[in-house]
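The protein record filed here:
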Amino acid sequence: MNSGCKLIAGALTTMALATSAMVVLPYLQVRDLDPPQELQPYTAQELRGRSQYITLGCMYCHTQQPRGAESGVDFQRGWGRASLPQDYTYDSPHLLGTMRTGPDLLNIGARQPSIDWHLGHLYQPRAYVVGSNMPAFPFLFEHKLQAEAGEYAVTLPPSEAPEAGVIVARPEAMDLVKYLLSLDRTYPAPSE
């Protein structure tokens, strides 16, 4: 009986120390950090796009945390400076990702600021990045004879353009692109 109590006490002590080291201390380090002036809260459209990003499972293949020069080649690839806690002030939940099958997307808004490129890439990724294993999302688009007022007709490469009519982005596609364009953390790193 005595050794059972010691075992339970030891397990609870270990759990308390691990929780302190993994949860409490990091929280105390970042709780009072102010967001950089350049970082703005997401708009309603960007939040809807963020929801699409989650629904489509984009974070399973893309990270949103470029590594520092000492940890990899992200900076040489042009993916931007290493991310900091302040970069995620308005993110809830955080979409850091766990595996990088595709490129890191934290600064995709700066690297690729074209709405047409993003829409075309969502419609048919391999038309824009040869050998891409990203799935196409044609259900985010509609084939019409012509775009109506307020609709966005996607400019596609000739190999992907329909013979007749146009491809029109649904609101969900436009929301997702607005979210991707908002991912721009190329401002200088905030001073500590």
